[in-house]
Design goal:
single chain; about 280 residues; alpha+beta; Tetrahydropterin Synthase, Chain A; 3-stranded antiparallel beta sheet; rod-shaped
């Protein structure tokens, strides 16, 4: 009977030791943590207590790094501290009530060493949506609505500068640092785009007409100068064509014709007006 009890006790002890080992190993595997943070980010390490421990903030670290093995249930919230571009798309009524679609891009970084503040006061990974986005959009709307639709493209740098100054002032007491604001593509409604194309085509046609007008003007000036030359030459000729000179030239022509053997000359008397004299039948 004693041998049987001893065997049972030994078996119980072995099972107990095995369970204890498994429990310790399992606890070690599940309880020990080693939070890590990648490069370019900062980690906010906090404890989630199981049965004991107060929990809460444990520390912070800059990546790339590991917090280290711990029996506490430590976890980490990693925040990207590098400059990132945040894009917002708008459809805004300009000052002339035309609906314009365009993008704004804000480049924002987070101050190094401020991960605890970002997590506890600004919503951790959601800091942009919770603290920056709506204010950024409000500044853009307020600024754009001061301009007519046709002025937006020519004033995009001025608009970007005004939004930048307002947003920098808003973020001045926070860990968030605004690098710059850029106005992206500005898209007008189809009716405006078509009107612009027609206007450009009309301007091109007008330019061609002006060129043709200048060519015609130059051609007319050339013809005027040619006419002036012809008139001047005619004036000189007319000044030399006296009655005696004409009669002299006519006589010379008649002499040359008379010298021709196959030529018959008929003289008809004419009056002072050059009309031949005709004697009446009576």
């Amino acid at each position: 009977m004693r041998a049987r009890n001893s065997g049972t006790q030994a078996l119980f002890n072995s099972l107990f030791k095995g369970a204890l080992v498994v429990g310790v190993v399992g606890f070690g595997l599940t309880a020990c943590t080693n939070p890590s943070t990648p490069a370019g980010e900062e980690g906010y390490v906090f404890e989630k207590p199981r049965v004991f421990g107060e929990g809460g903030y444990q520390g912070s670290m800059k990546g790339p790094s590991n917090y280290g093995m711990s029996l506490l249930r430590n976890e980490v919230v990693n925040i990207d501290m590098r400059p990132n571009t945040y894009t917002e798309t708008f459809r805004i009524l300009a000052n002339d009530d035309l609906n314009i679609k365009f993008d704004f891009h804000a480049v924002i970084a987070i101050e190094s060493g401020s991960v605890k503040t970002v997590v506890e006061q600004y919503g951790a990974e959601n800091w942009y949506k919770r603290f920056v986005r709506e204010t950024f959009r409000t500044y853009v709307r307020d600024t754009v609505q001061k301009y007519d639709s046709g002025e937006l493209k020519t004033n995009r740098e001025k608009i970007a500068k005004e939004v930048t100054l307002r947003l920098q002032s808003y973020l001045s007491t926070t860990p968030f640092k605004l690098a710059n604001v850029v106005v992206g593509n500005i898209n007008y409604p189809d009716i405006v785009a078509n009107a612009v194309e027609k206007k450009l085509a009309a301007q091109q046609l007008l330019s061609e007409k002006e060129t043709q007008k200048e060519i015609a003007k130059k051609d007319a000036e050339i013809r005027v100068e040619e006419a002036k030359g012809i008139a001047q030459a005619q004036k000189i000729i007319n000044a030399t064509l006296t009655a005696n000179y004409i009669q002299h030239e006519a006589i010379n022509a008649q002499i040359k014709m008379a010298e021709s053997p196959n030529h018959t000359t008929v003289y008809i008397p004419v009056g002072n007006n050059g009309v031949p004299l005709v004697k009446g039948a009576n």
